[in-house]
Amino acid sequence: MTDMLTDQVRAITQWLAERAPDVEIDETTVLADGVLTDSFEFVELLVLVEELRGEPIPAEDMELENFRTLRTIADTFLAPKETGADE
Question: What's the pTM value of the predicted model, to 2 decimals?
């Protein structure tokens, strides 16, 4: 994981921990299981992810499964995109 990605995941982890202090959160914690308790928190998380990535999330990617865990959020929205054969 790059330093920037690590910082982004850390920011999301901190945000989640403030909302669910009694839940141990790691990259595999299913966020719908006691972490995000209502639709408003999901919208707030979506806005946070957009701020961290520096661009809006396309409507077609706003599927609950893409926000299942920190790992799926990082892989889907924050990880650098491969742009060519040079990588």
Answer: 0.85
